[in-house]
Write a structure and sequence with these properties.
Layout (H helix, E strand, L loop, with lengths): L1 H21 L3 H25 L5 H37 L2 E5 L3 E6 L5 E5 L14 H14 L1 H45 L7 H15 L7 H16 L1
Antiparallel strand pairs: 1-2, 2-3
Helix pairs in contact: 1-2, 2-3, 4-5, 5-7, 6-7
Length: about 240
């Protein structure tokens, strides 16, 4: 009975932790899952060792995890130094580190691109790139009343992101127009019974031959005559 209760409790803890991982920013979920499986491995090793089902090596591994846990607080204390070192390295690599009360961002000197992370307030821990433009606009409204400096930095990022989205949309539209033009040309060639590389004289001759046969005045079809005329116009104006 005790084992069943323990198993249920562990399962509940595992489900709760997994649910918490799902709420993390996308770039942190991977490390969250890694920690989960490490913890699961530790619990498994402890259980097998305690029940005599594992070699002494399992106990040694467990001891190693315990040691890492003791060292972790020291690593955390060193993090400010590591952050300062990261800023120095960024400067040497042609990047500026910009930090406000709510945001930490880098500006690439060569490309002018801004990358940022929310360090305080709503969406704390999320990268700006992980939020939609609508979510960023809501966040901007919050900063405009709570932190003017963060609002200015976020506005710069939103402007850049909007410009990138507009450029991407323009490229997609241009690609669609080119694809439509290619499709129209291919269809026009097929309509006149020609192949790619046909000369202007060949296009005119093919059109004349077909229109003479299908012109409405000669008992032809209005629709087909219109398609033939359209095919000639597309190929001659291309």
């Amino acid at each position: 009975m005790i084992r069943v209760v323990i198993a249920i409790a562990l399962a509940a803890i595992a489900i709760s932790y997994l649910w918490r991982i799902r709420s993390l920013p996308p770039h942190k979920q991977r490390s969250g899952y890694i920690k989960f499986f490490i913890g699961l491995a530790v619990v498994t090793v402890i259980f097998l060792t305690a029940t005599g089902r594992m070699h002494w090596l399992g106990a040694a591994i467990t001891g190693g995890f315990v040691f890492l846990r003791q060292v972790l607080p020291w690593i955390i204390r060193v993090l400010p130094f590591l952050n300062k070192l990261r800023q120095q390295q960024s400067a040497q690599q042609g990047q500026s580190v910009i930090q406000t009360d709510h945001l930490s961002a880098t500006l690439d000197h060569a490309s002018g691109l801004i990358e940022g992370e929310i360090i305080e307030g709503p969406h704390k821990g999320w990268l700006l790139s992980e939020l939609s433009l609508s979510e960023l606009e809501v966040l901007l409204e919050h900063y405009q009343t709570a932190d003017a400096e963060s609002a200015e930095l976020l506005q710069a990022y939103i402007d850049q992101r909007t410009q990138q989205a507009n450029e991407a949309e323009e490229e997609r539209s241009e690609a669609q127009r080119e694809a439509a033009a290619d499709s129209s040309r291919t269809e026009a060639l097929a309509t006149l019974g020609l192949t790619e590389g046909a000369t202007e004289e060949e296009i005119i001759a093919a059109h004349r031959s077909l229109i003479q046969k299908l012109h409405p005045d000669r008992g032809g079809n209005d629709f087909l005559a219109a398609k033939i005329n359209q095919a000639k116009d597309i190929l001659l104006n291309d």
